[in-house]
Write a structure and sequence with these properties.
Blueprint: H1 5-8, H2 16-28, H3 32-40, H4 46-53, H5 57-66, H6 72-92, H7 95-102, H8 121-135
Helix pairs in contact: 2-6, 6-7, 6-8
């Protein structure tokens, strides 16, 4: 079965069925092609991807050359990031506005940028929660 990481994660919320589907995809392991499709949809450098995935830049470069399949934790992170990016683009209406927001220090994150939090599952949840508040007009 072939997946498109962008299309598969383009959902308003992750249902129980979708969670099972994501688990299946992650257990199979996402391919470097899945990563490249996601990377092409986001104006982020290899260094930024490296930080978010907790993988060295050199390892990512090797992955690209070898046709690597990502591990379960790496695949889960890629799926969660793809979902977050799709949600952010939907909330902000324009990809460039969302990615600018990701890179802008935010008081709700103690002055950190949302992007700087994305290397941790806890940080990713904080950013998703904030996007949901923005989407519903709840500003703290």
């Amino acid at each position: 079965m072939s997946y498109n990481i962008i299309r598969e994660t383009e959902i308003p919320y992750v249902s129980e069925d979708k969670t099972r589907e994501f688990m299946k995809m992650a257990r199979k392991g996402l391919s470097i092609n899945d990563f490249q499709l996601l990377a092409e949809s986001a104006p982020l450098s290899l260094s930024e991807w490296s930080h978010m995935l907790n993988i060295s830049e050199r390892s990512l470069q090797r992955y690209q050359k070898s046709g690597h399949t990502f591990s379960l934790p790496e695949s889960e992170k890629l799926l969660r990031l793809a979902h977050l990016f799709n949600k952010g683009k939907s909330v902000f209406g324009e990809p460039q506005k969302f990615f600018a927001w990701l890179k802008h220090p935010n008081a709700i994150f103690s002055g950190d940028t949302p992007q700087s939090l994305l290397n941790s599952s806890f940080g990713l949840e904080l950013v998703l929660d904030e996007l949901t508040r923005i989407e519903h007009g709840v500003f703290v």
